[in-house]
Amino acid sequence: MTASTRLRRVKPALAGRLLAKRSAGRLARWDMKFSPYLFVSPYFLLFAAFGAFPMLYTLWVALHDWDLVGSRDFVGPANFRMVLSDPQFWNAVWNTAGMFVVATVPQLLLALMLANALNRRMRGQTLLRMGVLAPMVTSVAAVAIVFSQLFSRDFGLINYVLGWFGADPIDWTAERWSSWLAISVMVDWRWTGYNALIYLAAMQSIPKDLYEAAAIDGASRRRQFWTITLPMLRPTIIFTAIISTIGGFQLFTEPLLFGNGDMAGGSLRQFQTVTMYMFENAFGRFDYGYASAVSWMLFLIILVGSLLNFLWLRRVGGGAR
Amino acid sequence: MPAPHLRRFDASHDEPAPPRGARRSGPRGRARRRVRLGAGIAALMLVAGCGGGGADDGKITLTVDTFSTFGYEELFKQYEAQHPNIRIRHRNVVQLDDYLPRLEKWIAAGRGAGDVVAIEEGILTKFMARPDRFVNLLDHGAGSLQGNFLDWKWKQALTPDGRYLVGLGTDVGGLAMCYRTDLFAKAGLPTDREQVGKLWPTWDDYIATGRRFAAKVTDAKFVDGAVNLYNSMLAQQASQTVGHTYFDPSGKLVASSNPAVRTAWDTTLKIQQAGLSAGLKSFEPSWGTGLKEAKFATIACPSWMLGVIKENAGAAAAGKWDVAAIPGGSGSRGGSFLAVPKGTEHPKEAVELVKFLTSPQSQIAAFKARNNLPSSPQALDDPAVKSFRNEYFNNAPVGEIYASGAKALKPLYLGENTNPVNQRFEDALLAVEQGKLTPDAAWSKALGDAEREAR
User: Fold this and answer.
1) Chain A CB within 8 Å of residue B292 CB
2) pLDDT of B28 over the 50 cut
3) Chain A: which residues have CB within 8 Å of chain B?
4) Contact of B277 with B25, CB cutoff 8 Å
5) Which among A70, A141, A283 has the least Cβ separation from residue B41?
């Protein structure tokens, strides 16, 4: 009896303590569960404000006949339907994809070779490694202006040099191949060093003992490159390929300045990219709805392009995994 | 004005020279870019800061947005001196093509624009459809100023019912033909401007002269390129005949049926096919280099083009260029207006400034500063304008050359989408010059693309 009363008397206090313990446990669990999200939230909040919202709003605009000063009528998917059957849009897609291939393939190969060379021990190592970044810190506009002058038909250095060999001056902006080439040179000039540094960083993280073991087994330097360096670089190569895809499909400043600010990219749209076409619709035709539809299509194309790249490079790199 | 292109030039207001070109020639805004391209692009990317005016020390700040060069620097100083309570902030965008999208955004949003904005005639048509975005100048006593402007210039900025006046005219773009006297001498052609004008009463005579030139001179072509020639010719042909270019006054696309378009196109290509063109596109860097290197002997020059030539050809060519009559008679290409957007906090003061800047006296001053041909008959008749000679152009009496025909100029109606349509015509001409299209294929392509733009 007494014992039971005591017990009963004790109970509330105990219960309270137990309760406190339990809620502290819950807090701790919540802490474990949600804090990480809280910590990464600034990025997502910023992304929501400056990434997701504009994207969704662009989608909203794309569903309208949206003239900046005039009407804003809801038209549903009409803009998208028009984009899909618009030869000027597909021309821009073709140009963009073409310039992406012409620019990116040699660029990544060159970057790889450059990184491999920079990875050796040599004099002035840091200087050389920093040096490859120099084109990157030059403003795009400056690069584009200088290269546009080099590629000028009447007064350009390149035609002048070609003239020594008896070649007729090339009108670089007139042909598709010549304009693509000129623009790709600008892109590569700017980005090769950047990719080389990324490769170099990845190369330095490859364990040295792999090379030592290979050397002991009698593998040549070249063999080591193909069977050790390259497979170990695969994730990095996928990364650079995807970044290049995203960048390449948004190519804008170089072709715009190559055509001296011509949004149409050449007399027959020889080098108009998708972003230039979007720009032309927004700021030449002031058709914001249509321009928004174009930019959404570009987004989808980049998504698909990156995915294809990823899958392809995984497969090529094949067996290693 | 068929859209003349706008090219514009320098951003630095202290520079002494040239023109304002307010016009775009055709629409492509391509601008002239030499060094300025970078600056232009950078400017393009920057969203311009706020407009509007604020008073800190009790002064009212009026922001004036212009493109190209209007020649107002001295006038601003003068106005500030006369109105101690006013401070003027001048924001200039060198290239019309960079300026237009910004202006359109400001006007659409109802804020951001300055208290006074310059409107090129190519875009005025678009704003005339929404006059309520601007202060009605008739509410501020501008009605009494009608006599200060050429009749058609006045009407361009007036709604059809006559109740709403959006802007007051600044300049018009009379046409002439500039030529290099040293190259003409080399070709055995006369160099005196009177005699040169007599060489080519018509465009066919111009071509004949070109052939004579080409027979003697091989290191330079007769004319700069199809684009500038076509734009000038289109303005001329259209203003002499039907009074509109690609769009009729009802807004219908008439590019395929307007004889003025076809005539300008055919004549331009006739000149090009005769091998007389240097194939340079106006306002591109290589066109500027062509001017500097004397790679062509003639160039159609609206009044505002004089400054462009001077700036590009440079001091070394001083006195070597001269100005003669244009083949085929007068015409106007380009011209602008000043307006007061609704968003201004100081409509009264802004309108007063517009009245001042567009007064005959101010137009005379702007003409002297930048050769912007006045749109005011009083200014055109003024001895200071009539007797004005341009030293750089071999002391040519440019006042007389441009002003004498100006009052006879006829207005040109430009539709909302004139600029993009004209760009497609320029592209097609360029494709012919590049040897990518035959003239016939280029014509059908231009017409097809024009329909896309007009959609």
Assistant:
1) no
2) no
3) 68-70, 88, 139, 141-142, 145, 148-149, 152-155, 171, 173-174, 253, 256-257, 260-262, 264, 266-268, 283-286
4) no
5) A141
The ipTM of this complex is: 0.78
Given CB atoms, is B333 within the 8 Å cutoff of chain A?
no
Q: What is the pLDDT of residue B393?
A: 94
Asked whether the predicted pLDDT for residue B52 surpasses 80, the reply is no
**Domain A86-320 CATH assignment equals 3.30.1450.10:** no
CB–CB contact B104 A69 (8 Å): yes
When scoring B28, B111, B132, B429 by the number of chain A Cβ atoms within 10 A, the one with the most, hence best to mutate, is B28
CA distances from B239 to B12, B205, B404 (A): 34, 21, 17
Mean pLDDT for the stretch of residues A192-204: 93
A111-117 average pLDDT score? 92
Record the tokens describing residue A257, joined without a space: 């300045």
Q: Shortest CB distance from B285 goes to which of A253, A260, A262?
A: A260
Does domain B4-172+334-404 match CATH 3.20.20.70? no
Of the CATH numbers 3.40.190.10, 2.40.160.180, 1.20.120.1730, 3.40.50.170, which one belongs to the domain with range B174-332+411-454? 3.40.190.10
The per-residue pLDDT for B7 is: 36
Which residue type, as a one-letter code, is found at position A170?
Answer: I
**Contact residues, chain A, for B101 at CB < 8 Å:** 283, 286
pLDDT tens for each residue of B351-404? 999 999 999 999 999 988 888 899 999 999 999 888 999 999 999 999 888 887
Does the distance separating the beta carbons of A69 and B107 come in below 8 Å? Answer: yes
Q: Do B280 and A154 count as a contact with CB atoms less than 8 A apart?
A: yes
Per-residue pLDDT, A13: 57
A28 pLDDT tier (thresholds 50, 70, 90)? confident
Q: What is the DSSP string of A11-41?
A: HHHHHHHHHHHHHHHHHHHHHHHHHHHHHHH
| Band (B311; pLDDT cuts 50, 70, 90) | confident
Look at residue A20 in the predicted model and tell me its pLDDT: 63
Q: A61 and A292 in contact (C-beta within 8 Å)? A: yes
Q: Is the pLDDT of residue B173 over 90?
A: no
pLDDT at res. B340: 96
Task: Give the whole-angstrom CA distance, residue B419 versus residue B28.
Answer: 7
Rg of chain A, C-alpha, whole Å? 29
Contacts of A68 in chain B (CB under 8 A): 104-105, 108
CA distances from B434 to A113, A193, A195, B285, B290 (A): 39, 35, 37, 17, 17
Q: Provide CATH 3.40.190.10 ranges for chain B.
A: 4-172+334-404, 174-332+411-454
- The secondary structure of B39-56 as a DSSP string is HHHHHHHSPP---S---S
Please list every residue in chain B whose beta carbon sits closer than 8 Å to the beta carbon of residue A152.
Answer: 285-286, 289
**Cα A183 from Cα A160, distance rounded (Å):** 19
A284/B280 CB distance under 8 A: no
Instruction: Find residues 393-412 of chain B whose CB sits inside 8 Å of chain A.
Output: none
